[in-house]
Amino acid sequence: MLSLFSLQLWSWMCPSLTILYSAEFWGDIAKDFFWKTKHTGQFLDYNFDVTKGEIFVKCMGGASTNICYNLLDRNVHEKKLGDKVAFYWLGNEPGDEMMVTYRELLQRVCQFANVLKSQGVKKGDCVSIYMPMVVELVIAMLACARIGAIHSIVFAGFSAESLCERILDSQCSLLITADGFYRGDKLINLKLLADEALRKCREKGFPVEKCIMLKHLSKETEETALGSQSPPAKRSCPDLQVPWNPDVDLCWHTLLLGASDECEPEWCESEDPLFILYTSGSTGKPKGVLHTVSGYMLYTATTFKLVFDYQPEDIYWCTADIGWITGHSYITYGPLANGATSVLFEGLPTYPDVSRMWEIVDKYHVTKFYTAPTAIRLLMKYGSEPVQKYKRESLKVLGTVGEPINPEAWLWYYNVVGEKRCPIVDTFWQTETGGHVLTPLPAATPMKPGSATFPFFGVVPAILNESGEELEGPSEGYLVFKQPWPGVMRTVYGNYQRFETTYFKKFPGYYVTGDGCRRDKDGYYWITGRIDDMLNVSGHLLSTAEVESALVEHESVAEAAVVGRPHPVKGESLYCFVTLSEGVMYNHTLEAQLKKQVREKIGAIATPDYIQNAPGLPKTRSGKIMRRVLRKIACNERDLGDISTLADASVVEQLFQNRCTTAV
Ligand code: PRX
Questions:
Q1: Are 394 and 361 in contact (CB under 8 A)?
Q2: Exposed, middle or buried, 199 (CB in 10 Å: 0-12/13-18/19+)?
């Protein structure tokens, strides 16, 4: 590992050599995968400069492969890992557990791939998946990958409206969902939400013809209970309502009856699309980030292996949801590419009690553990006793992702959870980057609490000032990347212009992350947070525009402005200023309606924490809302800086006086 760190430092200090060396580095790694046809020409071809033409990244042109084949068939047949456990699945309720081996996973993926084919899904078609954290979610995504279909997973915490928006954008022909699931003691009627989304799609002129539903909560019921008219019986979950539309709905289990467990993979070109994953965009409309087959496979496999120092006997656990990129890259693709055994957990860190995580760590002898700062801060609130009830002797590496980790949380993670034995890998990356881009290598990179340290191999960061000049040495500014790595996104699905504008227009020649960054005297990178109109709530990106538009859709709201306010657990919370329509009075009923409206439009993660009645908003003379001033009001900071451009300064004092001090 130490020599890897020297290589990491070297690659950072000699960026001009990195593209050459990186082709060799990745070329060597590619030898360990199966290629139906070999690549020809340049390993990584690209243009990052809008002034020189279209932006593109191509990795391993000419090669063809299948990622599902590499993750499953190769591990079962070539590496003889058929009997190895791929996933220990743990349900929301303690004791609800099962496991699946690599051989079983391969068979079940093939069966479901045949089901998809029998429903007319072909290479290049898009399939939306809206499921809880169950093994069948992994099966559905890999079945798509096996037949060359593009999966678009929508986090099951998103609302029907958000699902509808994503279905329309990806023009998918089929939706896969489940009856419902529990999050802690809360029942989520997922099928109801899926139906609502499909109804909205139909109203907008896009009828999705088929919806495959997995019986998750009602799984022990007889297949026959699901007749053409009747919903499935609800023996295990009496409160679950499962409406059934025989014209559209299909039962996962019924479709599997008789499906063969052999399915020849579809050989895909390197740059064929693998999946779309939506991420918030600063204009409010989510962007469908597109990843392609070969580069993503190499990148997730390698970052997983090196960043977690993966060893064959490891039991790895990433607590993210597969509905986010962390789950795509570091629950499904990276670990399976390495033949790893993972824990797949459906539940919450606090249910039934705040020791749940550590109990699981001990029970399964978890060695590598990957979570988010928000989870660490949440557990930290309960002190060290719930952690120390369990031994955690098996732990070797602790990872974090999703937002800057404050040193206090880092130290608690290191001292209490890892008992000073386990290196912490603070991994900085994005949906767009596909995998880790700034990260320590465990036990090799000297750590600094709160710093994501150095770039991964082949990644060349730079820090730019407002005029786009590269800053040397200790400095602070825009974090950008100068060249691609295999796993970087290829475009915004169906919207190349948006791809170019969002990531490449501001500073030609660079990929712009949207994050601020500081480099210290030792060359360590410290992410300072988003510098666009994006908020990071519990590690999830939300655009202020998206929340604002959900608020103004309410008939009583004339205008809305949303800013982030620091939150001890979530990182940031949503502080919303609303200007009401003429004659409308502000009261608690309206406040509750607005909160509900945002939840219904976007999902629970976007629930406003504070809503303030704002008869006026601070605007410049040209009518632009001064969010900088609103952020100060939300935090009750009187030092406002230069406000000479404000059209009416009295508005500010009024807002300070009516500040919200308690969350709604
Ligand atoms: O602001 C950065 C923050 O999360 C953003 C990416 O969000 P998303 O695409 O949803 O992917 C999250 C999981 C990879 C980044 O632009 N972020 C992510 N990891 C870190 C981070 N900020 C600081 N430190 C990190 N380790």
A1: yes
A2: middle
**CA–CA gap between residue 619 and residue 652 (Å, rounded):** 10
Q: Using one digit for the tens of pLDDT, what is the confidence trace for 16-36?
A: 555 556 788 999 999 999 999
101 vs 1: which has the higher pLDDT = 101
Q: Measured in angstroms, how far is the CA atom of residue 367 from the centroid of ligand 1?
A: 24
Q: What is the pLDDT of residue 223?
A: 42
Task: Tell me how far the alpha carbon of residue 311 lies from the centroid of ligand 1, in angstroms.
Answer: 26
Identify whether the C-beta of residue 201 lies closer than 8 Å to the C-beta of residue 208. yes
DSSP alpha helix (H) spans, 339-448? 356-364, 373-380, 385-388, 407-412
For tokens 């069966």, the residue is: 111
- Looking at beta carbons, which pairs linking 507-511 to residues 24 or more positions away fall under 8 Å? 507/464, 507/468, 507/478, 507/480, 508/49, 508/50, 508/51, 508/468, 509/48, 509/49, 509/51, 509/482, 510/48, 510/462, 510/464, 510/480, 510/481, 510/482, 511/48, 511/480, 511/481, 511/482, 511/484
Domain with CATH 3.40.50.12780 in the chain: 66-261+271-348
Q: Where in the chain is the domain with CATH 2.30.38.10?
A: 1-63+423-529
Q: How far apart are CA 51 and CA 510, in angstroms?
A: 11
Side chain identity, residue 109 = V
How far does residue 107's CA lie from ligand 1's centre (Å)? 35
Q: What is the DSSP letter of 604?
A: G
Residue 610, φ and ψ in degrees, nearest 5: -135, 135
Atom of ligand 1 nearest to the CA of 428: 26
66-261+271-348 is classed CATH 3.30.110.70 = no
Q: Using the structure block, give the residue that is written with the tokens 């001990």.
A: 362
Give the distance (Å) from ligand 1 centre to CA of residue 440: 15
pLDDT in the model for residue 241? 81
Q: Is the CB of 326 under 6 A from ligand 1?
A: yes
Q: How far apart are CA 51 and CA 644, in angstroms?
A: 37
Report how far residue 324's alpha carbon sits from residue 310's, in angstroms, rounded to the nearest whole number: 22
Probe target for ligand 1 pocket from 276, 527, 530, with the most ligand atoms within 8 Å of CB: 527
Tokens of 230: 């009747």
| Assigned CATH for 1-63+423-529 | 2.30.38.10
Kindly state the tokens that stand for 69. 């084949």
Sheet holding 315-318, edge to edge: 97-101, 85-90, 341-345, 315-318, 368-371, 397-401, 424-427
Residue 540 Cα, ligand 1 centroid: separation in angstroms? Answer: 8
What residues does 211 pair with on adjacent strands? 175, 249
Q: Is the CB of 107 under 6 A from ligand 1?
A: no
| pLDDT tens readout for residues 262-287 | 999 999 999 999 999 999 887 778 99
pTM over 0.85? The answer is yes
Strand partners, 463: 471, 479
